[in-house]
Amino acid sequence: MCVGLSAKVVDLKDGTAIIDASGAKRSVSADLLDDLEIGDYVMVHAGVAIAKITDDDASETEKIMEEL
Questions:
Q1: Which of 7, 15, 40, 43 has the fewest C-beta atoms lying within 10 Å of its C-beta?
Q2: CA distance 7 to 21
Q3: CB-CB contact of 62 with 26 (8 Å)
């Protein structure tokens, strides 16, 4: 089973996204997502933004992770 992390994109540069995941900022590859913009929410796995998600999805994922 793989675990993905939901995060908000706070900056984009040359195929790299700076994400904010519950206050922790990290650089991840954004090469798989063509239409990514600052403010979007993404699912991140192994240092790669693999899918855009809605802010509702991100909130639900964060709630579940807090319960665990």
A1: 15
A2: 5
A3: no
Q: What is the total count of domains within the chain?
A: 1
Q: Under DSSP, is residue 31 helix (H, G, I), strand (E, B) or coil?
A: coil
The residues, ordered by sequence, that sit 6+ positions from 11 with a Cβ below 8 Å of its Cβ are 17, 18, 38
Q: What is the pTM of this model?
A: 0.81
Segment 16-66, tens digit of pLDDT: 999 998 899 999 999 999 899 999 999 999 999 999 988 777 777 677 767
| Alpha-carbon distance values, 1 to 9, 35, 45, 53 (Å) | 25, 27, 12, 20
**Domain range holding 30?**
5-67
Neighbours of 28 (CB within 10 A): 21
